[in-house]
TrEMBL record, chains A, B:
Pathway: Amino-acid degradation; L-alanine degradation via transaminase pathway; pyruvate from L-alanine: step 1/1
UniProt-listed InterPro entries: ALAT1/2-like, Aminotransferase_I/II_large, PyrdxlP-dep_Trfase, PyrdxlP-dep_Trfase_major, PyrdxlP-dep_Trfase_small
Cofactor: pyridoxal 5'-phosphate
Name under which the protein is recorded: alanine transaminase
Oligomeric and partner information: Homodimer.
Enzyme Commission number(s) from the entry: 2.6.1.2
Function, as annotated: Catalyzes the reversible transamination between alanine and 2-oxoglutarate to form pyruvate and glutamate.
One of the record's GO molecular function terms: pyridoxal phosphate binding
Length: 489, 489
């Protein structure tokens, strides 16, 4: 039995030491250890284990429907019609929903959304997207050929970063990302082996972006890599700020001067709540700055069906628009996306509806508008509520939640708590959030998962729980923070 | 206006020379230049341009619904119910469809399939998959924790290859793939910068796999890289063979001895047509070979909702099962998939239905079985028809289409045609397929897109067009081949 013994001693081919080293460096806090623990606590609660709380409230992720937000009726009607076209004979469905469904089905091979589509996405949907962008941007033209439908915004962002990553050592592509950032960026850069270049948002000025900080960060990076990309998230995740038009102009001018490819993550474009704030797309500002900018600066802008008033995260829909992309590179992009065949067709369909919703004279218009406005109004109220309650807590300082779906308050932690955390080998805000979770069932993400200025601590909390629950949650955080501070002072 | 001029001279950041070099080497023939040309021809036909044909027939891709295959009613009913739960009150839907929908919705956050799910996929669906695998494999146990739901099989395959790719130069991971292969593999390896190791299937023995050829290929590769992975596609794509149980045992023994991680692409597991052939999963064979194999050999098996009798390509559903994966690596895998949040939930839902279809006493069982059997029977007839007609053509030699959805016949090309192709800078079978497309509107993929022994030429043709159309198509190919041969002889 020599062979048998030999086989039993066979070492694994794939071990932690022999695996892809880049993958090991990937971190993704939004679904990290604290969320693992939250899932475990939920399981324990179901099994009847006694806890100081009855339910786990997950305010860690922008998952609107999971927090009770209702889907838009019209969108779901059209999706049901597309998936089960027998319903086209059903009187319960409005005519405009049926028209939309027929149009999508006609564009599908064999009139089934079970067929593959063009890899870039269904033609007529890319036209819908282009018209949407033109309306949004006050008539600036949009070529459907520049639109790529995606499997959520993350898919598009990773694809563009992939194209841009090249070189070795000091010529390796560097990518500027805001700190705090949405950790998809750091995760994608780690996986691709690109160089992450941090620029810090100004917490004192409501997380605004200073060009001098971009300059500092770029200068420093040029010592050790080849900075080629500047990523902006607007409205901000996790920081909830909305960029002014002026700031966007400055950023574009900076990217033009410093030869940076701009990536604008604009998935929260409908989520603007604060008075005096408005969403300005990078595309629009770029084109209004004149041909010397609009003919030269390379820009990719990303959108998603997961946020705004739709919150349809599970359908994994999105698009990207690429502007001034070199034609040969664009052909490479089209080839690259073709390997994955096509984005999920239900997500593509949803994107068609988001960008071409019921029109004023159509039967579903009134209900659509009512649902859309109600959802956005509730979000605006919850943004305000969150900021207000958090700012009543001594030791918590929360900037206005101008947009997006998150607050990212600063928390002052006692020295003794910081020391104890470090003894546990934990970041102090992880230690804080873990304690919060164990004592109250509230699941937040520590600021260290997004990046923050050294010596400062934060957490990210979504504003998505229903208003009554959100109030309870905020008051529990308040109580916890006071006790925690007292215990460690 | 110095700034303006400066900007106008600004060179692009991202050019073909400065982009990711790995991406440039990616090729994907299934959606390559011939398909681009087919789309263009379709457009010209729509615009009224005269052609020697009335329609383009795309036999280039395994896209069943696009070729007229009907979706399974029960699957679409449940999907419609999940997307628009108001329909749960509708009498037109059978109770078992409603039960399935309620179960899925209950497992979704906020009872909406618009919520994110666990990154590995919804728990109860992974249980469905595990039970399906246990039934398929005669009771060999399957742990739902080893199941990862995916965005189609391609997503899973790329993810596992990503984990496995490490090292530099002579220590770089080498991955053994069959030639002919499905070009997702070569594309993924190019993108990851892993080393592609070719082993040739034996066309003379109905595309069977010889262990001596694996041995030859492995020995040669060890000179210049670190071979760690062996990929098998069974039933075969593009070659349509079904592996014997004995051959699978030999492959497993080879992988055990040579310390190779096994990747089994089993997306055509229901597509077995030839008498005397049966699908044997690598998992089952591995476990039946005894603990010295089943406790040691690392295996990842992939499945999809896109093939078999479902053909739901557009929904992008799939799963992978990982066996004997190192626990630390598995934690890394779980982390890695979390960055993309979750697979599309409609695709996950469909996978639940595929692995847990209507049971004998449920109201939808009879219709489900009727539809399933009819679809598979028609495919079996078309497999036979394809082989038979192609083999009537002098200069075309087609192996039996034992399984999957493709024929991959060898074509004998006259020397003068080969010469002319080379003068055009084209592969001879690309030259042949382009001519076929221009003259008949039939879109096939040249064998060179999949790899083939030097000096041999092939094309891949799906068996999916409706039987009457398939017959016409095959006879047109016959006529074309005869004329082409005559013209160049």
């Amino acid at each position: 039995m020599a062979e048998k013994e030999l086989l039993n001693q066979r070492k694994k081919v794939l071990t932690i030491d022999s695996m892809n080293a880049n993958v090991k460096t990937v971190e993704y806090a939004v679904r990290g250890p604290i969320v693992q623990r939250a899932l475990q606590l939920e399981k324990e609660l179901r099994e009847g284990v006694k806890k100081p709380f009855d339910e786990v409230i997950k305010a860690n992720i922008g998952d609107a429907h999971a927090m009770g937000q209702q889907p838009i009726t019209f969108f779901r009607q059209v999706l049901a019609l597309c998936l089960y076209p027998d319903l086209l004979n059903d009187n319960k469905f409005p005519d405009d929903a049926k028209d939309r469904a027929r149009r999508i089905l006609k564009a599908c091979g064999g009139r089934s959304i079970g067929s593959y589509t063009a890899s870039q996405g269904i033609d007529c949907i890319r036209q819908d997207v282009a018209h949407y962008i033109e309306r949004r941007d006050g008539g600036i033209s949009c070529d459907p050929d520049n639109i790529y439908l995606t499997t959520g915004a993350s898919d598009g962002i990773v694809t563009i970063l992939k194209l841009l990553t090249a070189g070795e050592g000091r010529t390796r592509t560097g990518v500027m990302i805001s700190i705090p950032q949405y950790p998809l960026y750091s995760a994608a850069l780690a996986e691709l082996g690109a160089v992450q270049i941090n620029y810090y948002l100004n917490e004192e000025k409501c997380w605004s972006l200073d060009i001098s900080e971009l300059q500092r960060s770029l200068q420093a990076a040029r010592e050790h890599c080849n900075p080629r990309v500047l990523c902006i998230i607007n409205p901000g995740n996790p920081t909830g700020q909305v960029q002014s038009r002026e700031c966007i102009e400055d950023v574009i001018r900076f990217a033009a001067k410093e030869r940076l490819f701009l990536m604008a993550d604009e998935v929260y474009q409908d989520n603007v709540y604060a008075e005096g704030c408005a969403f300005h797309s990078f595309k629009k500002v770029l084109f209004e700055m004149g041909p010397e900018f609009s003919n030269t600066v390379e820009l990719a802008s990303f959108h998603s069906t997961s946020k705004c008033y739709m919150g349809e995260c599970g359908l994994r829909g999105g698009y990207m628009e690429v502007i001034n992309m070199d034609q040969e590179v664009k052909a490479q992009l089209t080839k690259l996306v073709s390997v994955r065949l096509c984005p999920p067709v239900p997500g593509q369909t949803l994107m068609a509806l988001v960008t071409n919703p019921p029109q004023p004279r159509e039967p579903s218009h009134a209900q659509f508008m009512k649902e859309r406005v109600a959802t956005l109004n509730v979000l605006a109220q919850k943004a305000k509520l969150t900021e207000e309650i958090l700012n009543t807590v001594p030791g918590i300082k929360c900037n206005p939640v101008q947009g997006a779906m998150y607050s990212f308050p600063r928390i002052i932690l006692p020295e003794r708590a910081i020391k104890e955390a470090k003894e546990h080998g934990q970041e102090p805000d992880m230690f804080y959030c873990m304690r919060l979770l164990e004592e109250t069932g509230i699941c937040l993400v520590p600021g260290s998962g997004f990046g923050q200025k050294e010596g400062t601590y934060h957490f990210r909390m979504t504003i998505l729980p229903p208003a009554d629950k959100l109030k309870i949650l905020l008051n529990k955080v308040k109580e916890f923070h006071q006790q925690f501070t007292k215990q460690y002072s």
